Give the backbone structure.
Amino acid sequence: MATGTKFELKMGAATREAFGRTLVELGRSNKDVVVCDADLSKSTMTTYFAQEFPERFFSCGIAEANMVAVGAGLSSSGKIAFVSSFSAFLLNKGFEQLRVTAAYPDVNLKAVGTHSGISIGEDGPSQMSIEDLALACSLPGFAVLSPCDEVSMRAVIHEVAAHKGPVFVRAARAKSPIVYSEGTRFPIGGSHELIAGKDVTLISHGLLVAEAIRAAASLEAEGISARVIDMYSIKPLDRDAVARAARETGAIVAAEEHLTDGGLGVRIAQVTAETTPCVMEFAGVNNVYAESGTPDELLDKYGLRAVNIAAAARKALARKGAR
Amino acid sequence: MATVTETRSVQELQAVCKQIRRHIVTMITAAKSGHPGGSLSAVELLVSLYFGGRMRHDPKNPQWKERDRFVLGKGHAAPVLYAILAEAGYTPVDELNTLRKLGSIYQGHPDRRFIPALEASTGSLGEGLSLACGMALAARLDGSPTRAYTMLGDGEIQEGQVWEAAMFAAFHKIDNVVCIVDYNRIQLDGFVKDIMDLEPLTDKWRAFGWHVIELDGHDMNAVNAAYDEAAATKGKPSVLIAHTVKGKGVSFMENNPKFHGMAPTAEELQKALAELA
Ligand SMILES: Cc1ncc(C[n+]2csc(CCOP(=O)(O)OP(=O)(O)O)c2C)c(N)n1
């Protein structure tokens, strides 16, 4: 699955860039695709769509709640509406509208939040989205996806456009390493095992997939065989892959650029509790708002690096051994 | 009782404005990111409040209970507020160039965890007026002379919450709240008229029950007079619709949407400082 040698990754475009480009592809092949943006089109990259299809692009001003409900209205009337902003504003300002105008009536709305996580850097916590997955996953019927690279983002956007039902897709500001080769499929509810392993399983999404791959490399050097899974579909979750990892490796580390409360990790824990209880460790933002800094400094300080994932894996292995 | 910042002459205030503008462009250049345009457009409006005696505050006693409050709704303009707080003596001037760096008190957006003298942590647009209304109401309950000021961007007032707060303030006759709209006509993606036009803006505020004061937001005399008129207006809240120029004071930034959220280069900084000498 991974390109090149097992642990080697080449830098690619940001997932928001891939999102913007893919919207244009969709716009060309389907005239029902419409896009709404809230004064951030040059950041979310919906600007590409706006330039090519100005009549199908709706500038909403800085008014995310209205935008979400307008999108739901468009979708209720047969359009495939994408609404986009920074993830923090889309989910937090638009949550009630996502709930009552999209989730509850099961409307075919596509919400895409960019600039997720703390890796936006210098702007600081007001613009950082670390609660978005907890919020989106709480909505009945929503599909929630967090692709890790440009290849998977492009495929996911095509998937969600074809899918009937409300969707939230999470994109990042920063460039991300290319994990996949073109042509890989990303069905909603799926996952990809990127590295085989038998001692412990590292499960992540988004920018932390590359960190998990690096963690697996350092663990391998210590003689620890780590399985790496990209859980790009946070909801629905690939329960089989989780149960198999629990059964076959007996230890799981969940790593994500999100609060540990309410993120992928707790969703995995629910599945292991229901299927095959196993040792788990959680790497994520722990009950705190971050601060300004460079993306690298923040990922270091808040423990979202390969070293942190590897340390969590060692801890999980020690606990597994003690059982 | 704590003292109130002394009043300065218009000439002195204009000199302070220049100094604030130099800080703004210098600190954003050092940070390599930030929002110069909307910081520069707000200078006179804030200098009048903090240095022109229009706001009652005491840098030696930031937690003075009866101080007036200021909430920067448009939190991305943090550099103008930081420069003012520093020049007023609340925070160190020599740390301004640590803006946006890890560990700096001068965070990307106003953050009360780092500077307690800030009345609110902002950065998610649309919340400033609601906060100011709450502060003004608390003062009313306490029998305090406190007035609450908030500055909103013209793009920011597209948020529905602003109009919920506008209705609330008029309904509750909150005459100790003052809303300042920095009407610089540019938001993030471009010109306000092309993103989501606001006109007729003064009519909107009037229809919501506000006392509207329209002014040139760079004319120091007009700014001082507007705050005085707001303070004298009883029974309803006041809004300043301040016509301003985004990037004011730096020729190549003026009316240039590019400098909403882009730092100047080192070379551009030199040009800017020469113009602000
Ligand atoms: C709720 C919310 N949506 C979007 C943003 C991103 N954003 C930051 S500044 C800005 C434009 C603000 O324009 P305006 O209010 O006119 O400010 P000014 O021109 O005075 O800088 C946007 C959209 C935000 N900070 N908060």
